[in-house]
Structure formats: C-alpha cells, structure tokens
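Students often ask why we bother encoding 3D structure as a string. The short answer is that it lets us treat folding as translation between two languages. Here is a chain of 418 residues written in the first language.
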Amino acid sequence: MQPQLATKKKSLPFSYLAAPFVESAPFRYLWLAQLISVLGSSVTTVILPMVVYSATGSTTTMGLTMALYMLPNVLMLPVSGWIVDRYDRVRLMAASDLIRFMIMVALAALVFTDRLTIPLLYALVVVYGLMDGMFQPAYAAVRAVVFTPPIRNSANALSQLGNQVIRLLGPSLGGLLALGSTGIGFSLDALTYLASFFFLVLLRKALPMKNSRSGQPVRIKEDFLEGIAVLRSHPWLWITILAFSFVNICYSGLIIVLLPWLFKIHLGLDPFVYGLGVSCSGIGAIAAALLFGARAKWRRRGPLAYGGAALSGIALLLMSMVSSPVLLGFLMAMEGFGLMMFGLIWETSLQELVPEEAFGRVASLDMMGSFVLLPAGYLIVGWLADHIGGISTITIFSTMGILSVLLLLLVPGIRRFD
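And here it is in the second language, the structure alphabet:
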C-alpha cells in the first residue's frame, strides 16, 4: 500500500491527498460528521460575540463568557481522558452531540422569545463547555485509530481542509444572519449537531471501538500517571504542551475576544465584514492544509511548526496597525496559514508517538495543558482592553507570543524534531 501511494504521488502530486476517501469508509463517516457540525459552530462563532456585544458592548463580558466556556472544558479533561480510554469513544462523541443539540435549541428558543439574558447565556455556555471537554479527547482518539499510517498526513489535512472550507461559508453566513435574527443561526447549529449524530451512528457500525481497558480494575491515579509517563518520554510533546499554555493566552485571547471588537467597535465595520475576515483566515488555513497534505512526509517539522506559530503572531500584531478591510483580510489569511501548519504537524506527531490505548489520556492532558490558563487569559485580555485600550492590548499580547515561540526554537528538543 505504501509504495503504491508513493508512486502515485510522483505522477499526480495531490493523489496522496485523496487516498483516505478511496481506502477508508470510517474516514468518510468521521469526516462528514465533523464537517457538518463545524458549519453550525462557525456560524455560532460569529453570532455569539454579536449577541454579547449588542447586549453589553463590554469586552470584559465577552472575556467572561469565553472563560465560562473554557473553565468547565478544562476541568472535564482529566476525567474525560480516563473515560475515553475505557469506554466506547464513538458513543461518547454521539452523546455529546445530542446534548449540544439541545443547548442550541434552547438558545434559539430564548432568542426567538426575547428571553435570553446574560446569566442564562452563561449557564448554557458552561454546559456546552463540559460537553466539549468530553467530545474533543474522544474525537482525537478516534482519529488516531481511523487515520492509519499510510493515509495519516492526508487524512489530517483533509479533515482540516474540509473544516476550513466550511468556515469560509459559515462565518459569512453567520454575519448575514446576525443582521436579522441570531436565533436562526443557533437553530442551524442545532440541526448540524443532529446530522453529526447520524453519521457517528454509521461510523460505529463501520468501526466498532474495542477499548481493551474496559474490563480492567478502576485505577484512576495509576492511569493518569501512565498518561504523564508517555508525555515525559517525548520532549517534543511535553515542552510544546507547557509552552503553549502561555502562547495560547497570547493568541486565543486576541482572536476570540479582541478581533470581534477590532472589527465591530474600533473600526465600526458591519458584522458581515467580520465574517468575511474569519473566512479569510479559513482561506489561509486551506492553503496550509493543501500544502501539508500533498506529501506523505515532511522533514524538520519542529522549526516548520513553530515558524507557523510565529507567522500567526506577526499577523495579529500587524492587525493592530491597519484599518483597511482588504489588509485585514490578508493578515487574517496569514494568521490562519500559520496556525494550521502548526496544528497539522502537532496532530500527526501525537498520532505517531502516542500508543492507541493511552491516546485519550494523553489527548486530554494535551488539551488541559494547552487550555488550562485560557479562562484567566480571556478575562485578563478583556479587562486589560477596557483599561488600557484594545489596540495596546493586541500589541502587547501578540509581541509576547512571537517572542515566546522564537525562544522555544532554541530548545534542542523542539529545533531538532524531525
């Protein structure tokens, strides 16, 4: 199988990219399930900040909203990683989709009846964060099984490529819906979770999950320490997880809290323009996915990944200095390209280095380490923007992120990762 793929690649550069569709039915079901749910989520990504800013105009409230989403997400991760390695991972994903479907139905009903308040929004966001904390480690573990070595690079690239293509449509659609009723956007998100559930049912029939640990004695502490031991055996993994617990504050705080503020409040642009800006980020990510997925192997992946992260930080920094929608769109594309290149290299390295039976715990430790400080980061970014100004806050945090990423390239375990 491997030599045939390599031969095709020489004659048709992108034939390797199409291999997962041809060779793997489980890949097709998993790809469709995630693709459909991303459509709804990308609409909500635009609509939710518009709901908060229209009701309050406060970056602090937006930061608190995202913190209340992220905090239960992070708290759930140590438990969910252990559960994922013991029970049916596809069933866990399907259950999470059903609950998120109900949350979006509730949000839509509250908007249509004009009963949505900020406290109610906070409560629903907390439950949504809990379900994401269960879904994401399960999804990562299922990917590690479905994305077998012969198709790994192309499968990861296609997953991200499909997500980003949808995100080209979703944010613009969300911006249009925000001009009318945000309840329609929440309703669309609800329907996509229901459709995702359907494809997960098909996936389970095609790929029954047989977790070998389900019949073993319950030893939570030992299982948790086993996941840590796997990470400690690979400096690339544990150094990156620890480092990005800070870098993610610098980047995600700006992307989630202050980029909507930059477009809507500071520059006074329509929600549709912000949606187009997010779509431009998707275009950059698509370019990175196409580039990465066209090859079965990449060399010097450490510098390549961290170079992508630095590129994204530079784009965020430059956004604080321009006002042209065209230039902002270009910089959003640059930001999306860099983060996608880093993300694809990180995902494939996890799938290569972590054994299947421990993947749920390692994935949850990865997410917990990377995201544990995000709730505080969202609050700090929102609070600081209210007190010293959004532009100054973008400049400070993007600069800190860039310097952190460049300094990490001095670490041999990062620089020499190949």
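Translate back mentally: The first helix runs from residue 2 to 11. Keep this in mind for the problem set.
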